[in-house]
């Protein structure tokens, strides 16, 4: 039974009914509709913390989805799961694939920056100052891109950029 048929709460059931109606009237081919069902089930599993099930659904969606923008969101969600599981390198791989398909995705750019910043912190703790600075610079570049796309978001990143002297702008928003 598909995950979306197992939802217990009213909001999930309502969303599922609405999504099913939209799928029926959406002028999309069958393959795209199937991809959406897998994506929707992946999001539901991910929200429930069922990461293995979510990944299975996302991988199936990737096999079917052809639209680059839609693929970027699938890849982004796969990246989130890998980051949640502590696999930063794999998360970076998927976030970068997502940005390659959709360079206007500030959340993916932010997540890439967060990982580089974290890696910079670890390098600094281990006394690898040059490596830390290089990682911080990478984080700064990704945060600047994210902030340009969503100037009212990422306030902590904006402050960090200012405090560390990595900001060329006085005000982002």
Report on the architecture of this protein.
There is one protein chain. This protein is mainly α. The protein has 2 domains: 9-87, Serine Threonine Protein Phosphatase 5, Tetratricopeptide repeat (Alpha Horseshoe), CATH 1.25.40; 103-172, no CATH class. 75% of the residues lie in helices and 0% in strands. It is built from 8 helices and no strands. The chain has helices spanning 10-25, 30-47, 51-64, 68-84, 88-101, 106-125, 129-149, 155-163. The protein is elongated, with a radius of gyration of 19 Å.
How would you summarize what this structure contains?
The protein is mainly α and about 170 residues long. It has helices at about 10-25, 30-45, 50-65, 70-85, 90-100, 105-125, 130-150, 155-165. The chain is elongated, with a radius of gyration of 19 Å.
Topology of this structure?
Layout: H1 10-25, H2 30-47, H3 51-64, H4 68-84, H5 88-101, H6 106-125, H7 129-149, H8 155-163
Helix pairs in contact: 2-3, 3-4, 4-5, 5-6, 6-7
Keywords:
173 residues; mainly alpha; Serine Threonine Protein Phosphatase 5, Tetratricopeptide repeat; 8 helices; 0% strand; elongated
CATH class call of the largest domain: Mainly Alpha
- Helix residue percentage: over 70%
Give the class from helix and strand content and strand pairing: mainly alpha
Shape: elongated
**Overall structural domain count:** 2
Function: Essential for the assembly of the photosystem I (PSI) complex. May act as a chaperone-like factor to guide the assembly of the PSI subunits.
Protein name: Photosystem I assembly protein Ycf3
Family: Belongs to the Ycf3 family.
Membrane topology: Peripheral membrane protein
